Amino acid sequence: MGASEYIMHGPSEGVSDDTDEANSAVKIVGGNVFVELDPDHPGFQDEGYRARRNEIAKIALEWNEMSMDDRRTKKIPHAPYSEDEDAVWAAIMERITPVHEKYACSAYLENAKDLGLPNDRIPQLQEVSEKLEEMTGFRQEPVGGLVHPKTFHTALANKVFLSTQYIRHSSRPFYTPEPDVVHELVGHTAMLGVPKWAELNILFGEADMRTESDAAINRLGSVYWYIMEFGACRENDRVKAVGPGLLSSFGEMEHACTSGKGCGENEACVCDPSVEYKTPDFEEMETKPYDVTKYQPVLFVWDSFEEMYEKTKEFVINWGTDNDPRKDLHK
After folding, report:
1. DSSP 290-309
2. Which of 125, 175, 177, 293 could form a disulfide with 2 if both were Cys (CB 3.0 to 4.6 A apart)?
3. Does residue 4 lie in a domain region?
4. Which of 17, 23, 9 has its CA nearest to residue 144?
5. Residue 71 CB coordination number (10 Å)
6. Could you tell me if 105 and 305 are in contact, meaning their C-beta atoms sit under 8 angstroms apart?
């Protein structure tokens, strides 16, 4: 999200076993794994940070080369986090926790507590995956960066969430130009502990698998964005964050849930001064453009989490089937 806290998973992200695009920022040079960073990346000139990024990417690449059986039985190797990086995590958790208490939906608060993410250090993916699997059957697997959409959604259909492990640079603890481990764990993983949310992710994955045209995949991906990344609902007449894109960003969460009244109050804000709340409309979601570099100016707000679950479930189950009134657009 540009100068905001996070750039989120878009519908064009997902890991391909068939192409070199599985880790789009990761290259193999002379047999060594190398992560390409833009010159304006906060960690570009930090050799220690870049070495850790390379090692974390190597973990993902080697994991990707394993058989499916090995992925289910072997443990994910530990990522090499520094004390400074643990301190970044701690600073974010200190700042985001009270915002969650105020603006996160109740389903998130209950399940985030059960997931038990530590406040003082970055948890290893293996330990979080084991706890998540106990809760909803979902597992996590490492990826080195942006990944192919078909593989991302196929993984969801198989109860696997593909997760990055690196964290933003310590010089900018409240900024990242790419989705990092904070977004993955604080946002996506905590919500995947909610059984109904986990079910919707599986259903989106299954819908993607039976979708053939790029146009239809883009439509489905756009619906995923507006619900499964930036969804919101009302609780006691107040707007609450549901989507991981909001839940992993203290700045955007407050901005979204106050209709922009908090705009400009933190250094991450690059948004319009207000948020438009709209009644959820799947047909509109399918084609409505969005900008991943800014706080979202439009939110589709459901009357309740239950309404979001029931209507989205019906929509995705019917996607592209004979029960779909817009079947021809969704094939």
Report:
1. --TTS--SEEEEES-HHHHH
2. 293
3. no
4. 23
5. 14
6. yes
Opening angle at CA 282, ends 217 and 158, nearest 5: 45
Distance (Å, whole) CA 251 – CA 173: 13
297 inside domain: yes
Both structure tokens of 297: 């100016």
Residue 321, Cα to own-chain centre: how many angstroms? 28
* pLDDT on residue 10: 38
Q: Tokens 């029960």 belong to which residue?
A: 323
Q: What's the token pair of residue 222?
A: 């756009």
Specify if 9 maps to a domain.
no
* Bridging pattern class, strands 238-241 and 276-278: unpaired
pLDDT of residue 9: 36
- Residue 90 sits in a domain whose CATH number is 1.10.800.10
pTM given for the model: 0.88
Res 29: pLDDT: 77
Number of structural domains found in the chain: 1
Domain that holds residue 46: 20-329
Is the torsion defined by CA of 317, 318, 319, 321 positive or negative? positive
Beta-bridge mates of residue 104: 241
Distance between CA 44 and CA 36 in Å, rounded? 9
As beta bridge partners, residue 165 has: none
Domain presence at residue 193: yes
